[in-house]
Amino acid sequence: MTSTAAATVSKVYFLNGPNANLYGLDANKVYGSESFPVLKDRCERKARELGIDLRFLQSNYEGQLVDWIQEARSEAKGVIINAAGLTYSSVPILDALLSFGGRIIEVHMSNIWRRESFRHHSYISKAADGVIAGLGGMGYELAIVAMSQLLNKPAD
Question: Is 88 tagged catalytic?
Answer without folding.
Answer: no
